[in-house]
Design goal:
Helices cover 40% and strands 17% of the residues. The protein is of the alpha/beta class. The protein has one domain. α4 links the parallel β3 and β4.
Length: 109
């Protein structure tokens, strides 16, 4: 099995994720020993058809901290990339920072 790849979206431009939640998730990821990729805004990357999205999706073992799972899947779809079935999208809009971090780091502490 491929190592876990964590992707954190700071949702910089949409302002839909509570600031305290995304800052806490980022802080705790930074303090963990789990490597992760942080991007300013997945929506912007999708709009600009950033090729990094294909690279991220190709990894297989991917957990994404962003917003609604359906929205994230469509952001990848918009650039012609299908997220693998094994990808897990964690919703910082509706879940607490504790819940998101627990799922991100599950089995990787």
């Amino acid at each position: 099995m491929k190592p876990l790849r964590v992707l954190y979206c700071h949702c910089t431009y949409a302002n839909v994720v509570p600031k305290a939640t995304k800052e806490e998730v980022l802080r705790r990821l930074t303090e963990s020993d789990v490597p992760f990729d942080a991007v300013p805004d997945l929506c912007e990357m999708s709009a600009k058809k950033d090729p990094c999205l294909a690279e991220l999706a190709a990894d297989g073992n991917l957990k994404i901290a962003a917003c609604y799972p359906r929205a994230v899947k469509w952001l990848f779809h918009a650039v012609g990339v299908k997220l693998p079935e094994t990808a897990e999208v964690l919703n910082m809009r509706t879940d607490t920072a504790d819940a998101v971090v627990e799922k991100l780091l599950d089995g990787n502490k």
